[in-house]
């Protein structure tokens, strides 16, 4: 796939982020300035870098660590980094997309769009990497404010990833663009 097709697919994937709210009403089309923003509560602390997992190799995605299996802020941050590493592995066809889908709930529309893109038109190269992540726990859920670097153009994209805890593991519940 050529670079312009990759960039277009990446832009389409990120545009999906703007539609990740829980409302069933359609949003107004974004302007070029706010194409990747949604309303979200402001987070006052600066994000601290999350420990990222190793990048995918020829043997597939990195292994899950024990920390990712903990219902803690650090565990949720590590899981978000792992989810995007798995997405990258799916795009370079080193991970079965079914494994990526299993990491998300059925209600995560962005996750479904990411998995669909990896299944139907894999980029052949990594999609995005988590550069920082800061989590807050709320009962069985975690809200992780993260900054992704798109590999196609180096653009930094702030997102909010909501995780839910069940069966002794984290799963992605939603991914939304973060208005800073």
From TrEMBL:
The keyword Cell division does not apply. Residues 20-72 are annotated as: Disordered. The keyword Signal applies. InterPro entries: DUF6318 (IPR046281). Residues 49-116 form the DUF6318 domain. Keywords: Signal. Residues 20-33, 40-63 have a biased composition (Low complexity). Residues 1-18 form the signal peptide. This is DUF6318 domain-containing protein. It comes from Ornithinimicrobium humiphilum.
């Amino acid at each position: 796939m050529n670079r312009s097709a990759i960039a277009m697919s990446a832009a389409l994937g990120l545009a999906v982020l703007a539609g990740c709210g829980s409302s069933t009403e359609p949003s107004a089309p974004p302007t070029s300035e706010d194409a990747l923003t949604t309303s979200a509560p402001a987070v006052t602390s600066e994000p601290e870098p999350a420990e990222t997992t190793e990048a995918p190799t020829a043997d597939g995605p990195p292994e899950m660590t024990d920390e990712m299996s903990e219902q803690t802020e650090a565990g949720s941050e590590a899981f978000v980094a792992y989810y995007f590493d798995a997405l990258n592995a799916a795009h370079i066809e080193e991970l079965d997309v079914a494994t990526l889908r299993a990491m998300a709930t059925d209600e995560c529309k962005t996750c479904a769009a990411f998995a669909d893109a990896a299944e139907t038109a894999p980029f052949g190269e990594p999609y995005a990497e988590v550069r920082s992540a800061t989590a807050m726990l709320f009962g069985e859920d975690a809200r992780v404010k993260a900054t992704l670097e798109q590999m196609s153009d180096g653009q930094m994209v702030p997102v909010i990833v909501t995780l839910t805890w069940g069966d002794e593991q984290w799963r992605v519940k939603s991914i939304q663009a973060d208005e800073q």
